[in-house]
Amino acid sequence: MANALEHPAVNFDEGFVSEDARRAAEQVRTVKERQKQALNLQRENILSQRTSNPARRTALEAALAQIEGQISAMES
Fold first, then answer.
1. Which of 1, 36, 49, 76 is most buried, by CB atoms within 10 Å?
2. Angle 54-75/19-48 helices, nearest 10 degrees?
3. Is the pLDDT of residue 1 over 90?
């Protein structure tokens, strides 16, 4: 059985997409959208934190950079 996140074969020349292929594509889109929402929530959480500790601030900046990199990679 194929993994739900694999891209099914679609014959675009005929303009026909099977119901299974459409359903699988919708599932992939939904999973990606949920991942993006989770990353945005993490980003907002980091941005809302306040600290005067320089080490903590550096860690938050690094985490923010990593999350923003993941978000931009998803949008590409």
1. 36
2. 160
3. no
Higher per-residue pLDDT: 10 or 30: 30
- Cα–Cα distance for residue pair 45/27, rounded to 1 Å: 27
Instruction: State the amino acid at position 50 in one-letter form.
Output: R
Q: Which residue has the tokens 């600290």?
A: 51
Cα–Cα distance measured from residue 23 to residue 30, given in angstroms and rounded to the nearest whole number:
10
Q: For residue 73, what is the enclosing H or E element?
A: helix 54-75
* pTM of the model as a whole: 0.69
For the chain, which residues make up each domain, given as ranges? 19-75
Cα angle value 31/60/40 (rounded, 5°): 25
